Amino acid sequence: MTIKDMEFTLKTYGVEPEDIETLVSHYKKAHASLSQLDEMLEEMGYARIFTDEIFGWMDDDEDEYDDSFSYSEKNHHRPQWVD
Description:
There is one protein chain. By secondary structure, the protein is mainly α. Helices cover 42% and strands 0% of the residues. It is built from 3 helices and no strands. It has helices spanning 3-12, 17-30, 34-44.
């Protein structure tokens, strides 16, 4: 994840600009992992953004993805006639 992607994600989730600067500077200086940034977000009063078990994102405690969340197939936009 690039820093621009990280900033965009944080802005999208409503993180204050001052907090975004703090997180990005910590990420640059300490080469923090995404789970460490999520811990910082929780300490600042925000919800986790980068690692989330509900959506199947990678969790550092587990070494595999959560397969319980899956995507459905894309629906066709044109109507199909059935005899």
